[in-house]
Amino acid sequence: MTSFNQVIVGMxxxxxxxxxxxxxxxxEGGGTNLAAxxxxxxxxxxxxxxxxxxxxxxxxxxxxxxxxxxxxxxxAAPSDRPRIEIGxxxxxxxxxxxxxxxxxxxxxxxxxxxxxxxxxxxFQDIYAHVANKVSPQVFSDYANRFDYAIKQAGLxxxxxxxxxxxxxxxxDYRYPDSFRELNEMQIEFGKKWGxxxxxxxxxxxxxLGKEPTEAQRLDLYDQDKGHPGLKGTYLYAxxxxxxxxxxxxxxVSNDWVKLIRxxxxxxxxxxxxxxxxxxxxxxxAQYLEDEMRSCRPGVFISQSNPSAIxxxxxxxxxxxxxxxxxxxxxxxxxxxxxxxVRQKVVEGLADMMSAVPGEEWRSLVEAANDPHAEIRKPxxxxxxxxxxxxxxxxxxxxxxxxVKQTAVRASLAPALVRLRKLSQGRQWQALVDEFQxxxxxxxxxxxxxxxxxxxxxxxxxxxxDGLKAKGDLTQALEFMPGNQTALNSLAGNYAANLKxxxxxxxxxxxxxxxxxxxxxxxxxxxxxxxxxxxLGEEGRKDEALALxxxxxxxxxxxxxxxxxxxxxxxLSSAPSTPSGDNPQx
Length: 585
Hints:
Layout (H helix, E strand, L loop, with lengths): L12 E3 L5 E2 L4 E3 L8 E2 L5 E2 L3 E8 L1 H4 L3 H11 L6 E8 L5 H6 L7 H5 L6 E4 L12 H17 L4 E5 L15 H17 L3 E3 H9 L5 H5 L11 H16 L14 E3 L10 H21 L12 H7 L1 H5 L6 H11 L3 H14 L5 H11 L4 H12 L4 H36 L3 H8 L10 H17 L3 H14 L4 H13 L4 H15 L6 H16 L3 H8 L9 H16 L12
Parallel strand pairs: 6-7, 6-8, 8-9, 9-10
Antiparallel strand pairs: 1-11, 2-3, 3-7, 4-5
Helix pairs in contact: 2-9, 5-6, 5-15, 6-7, 7-10, 9-10, 13-17, 14-15, 14-17, 15-16, 17-19, 18-19, 19-20, 19-21, 20-21, 21-22, 22-23, 23-24, 23-25, 24-25
């Protein structure tokens, strides 16, 4: 299901172990703790420290679910070491520019930065910006924005520099030059602004040695030779684990890796202990090198010069009539806003200025938020003369609404986190006992209200209370029209608890319209089978067969192909009954 958590666009890999519940602020907690606690002096188990980490990136992170790998590695570490809770704004193909331009709304990277007191915000850019080339300017423009926003929120940024793709993905990329180009660009940025950089590309190079063979290089990639494979992602995880916890990954068990399943290896895959050990050593060596190179997170080494940036716009500000009464009205409205709103509006105004390099953007925003009025006032006016008043007022209203929505969600978060925890643990009766009297329809945030209805409806369905489950699941769909999880749960409840095959069929058919025919999406496959079975029970075998034959059976994974073939054979051998002749079961 989706909360206001960002959707991960992966490449068909899933992890066959508990990934934890999705927090309403984009955080994911819970899950199976793979390490025992430490006994305290009173006999109780002392809880290890917890690090909350937000990941911002693209499919380079998503391919083998890098954030979850780091979480599981922390759980496998000695019991006195930190555990890690994760949040994510990860979208395939999205660079930092795309994440920034997505705005500050629900589930965006910028919205999530402000949604929780993260210990670290790890942000990662794409390997190419313009004409399939790395662009230091594009990177600097938006790394500056994120670096400033993260530090302004009182959080610790960590830049994650990946390895580059191979020449098989982009012909101009070559090893090791492309690795160095991509990592050095980000290291130089980190040096300037006092921001640590986890150089993942260099960690790969340390592991590979001086003259790796092509086979050795490609062993770290996935089959597309562009995304990191299981081994490449594990190397990244070891490096980021070291940065986040300050602990060495050397010696941490990697048994949990065997639980990772892919389409190519549905039974799970692993990394031999000796090989994993060398990866851990390489990652730790790179961490120590990165640490010596950069400042610790949170140290704000500003290179901005407010006087210089204001001098650039001095003539424009002095021009008669340039700063209009309408702009002055906007200025008063901005200054009357609460600090959080004012900060976001200032950033938005700077974004409205065309072709402003990242460092100039940063200088203007810093100046407009300066504690000294003689700097703050002219800087804000520089931003205002670059924007139309109607656009400014529209921006103020938008930011104000978003900030208020964040506050509402924060007030609802404890209840929703509790619901998710009980649901994840399949504690259905406890969930119902605790929340049966709750009126989720009165929640101000309809998306969270929809998820709450969904979770309670699933609990009722599991307890065989079909009517109450129907009520909650129907309400969930009013709040979240077309939600696949809610439709699937409602259809299952009609079939299993209410014995209403007609309604179940309607719900499954509606769900199949949403999922479409997708041979790589388990829900599309499952819904097709269930819909065909119900059509068959109504004697509509031709419709059922037509539905199943929309899927290319030879292309299905063996377990799905077996089920589809069995369903086709069963339907083919069944007698046809004209629609309407078969009574409702």
